[in-house]
Amino acid sequence: MINIKGLTKTFDKNEVLKGIDLTINQGEVVVVIGPSGSGKSTFLRCLNLLEEPTSGDIEFEGVNLVDKKTDINQLRQKMGMVFQSFNLFPHKTVLDNLTISPIKVKGESPESANKKALKLLDRVGLKDKANSFPSQLSGGQQQRVAIARALAMNPDVMLFDEPTSALDPEMVGEVLAVMKDLAKEGMTMVVVTHEMGFAKEVADRVIFMADGFIAEEGTPDELFNHPKNPRTQDFLSKVL
Ligand code: ADP
Ligand code: MG
What's the ipTM? Predict the structure, then answer.
């Protein structure tokens, strides 16, 4: 589904991504781990062109994203993104947060957008909050709304950048549970996280990033139980 070749990204003279090669298959859950500053967010942001790659190719569903002729807005509809900060529209109700893009960007009728939004809210356990405003919700609830909002666009892949890092500990589980369900249903997912338990349980493949490279990748068992690279070993000894 996504084929990344020789991806680099330089800010001024700071080379943050130094040549990433990665193929992500349909239905696969890829978890990206690594120290702070290793380029994980930049990598995700390059995938949906929130950052413009400096060099390399990213092919998504057969289209080269780096090609200037690619319609970025159409591409972004196919890639849902969930950030550490929930970024909900504060002056819109939960329901409106979910329907605004399907109506305005995709031209869905308000009736069908509402119906779908209520289904999605039910799926993330928040149907009773449809008419609440984001400020009336807990962080965990807001993040579940953010996930539902991304799903309302019917994306083919979901990108998560540390979706639970800003949450109080007691709310992490409810967000991870929603993500687990999504994975079970076959959604293609790229997840940057420090939740090693989630990585072990849900990932098909774990990528360890260090200094703008993929230092090591493998199944959760390979990476967590038999890491080969000393940098992976060192990182894991600090976080496990
Ligand atoms: P991670 O998500 O792994 O913590 P990031 O991708 O956020 O790492 O950052 C990697 C490096 O890129 C850092 O040194 C950071 O300062 C730099 N960086 C990220 N975004 C920008 C930007 N927009 N402009 C300049 N430097 C940036
Ligand atoms: Mg980051």
Answer: 0.98
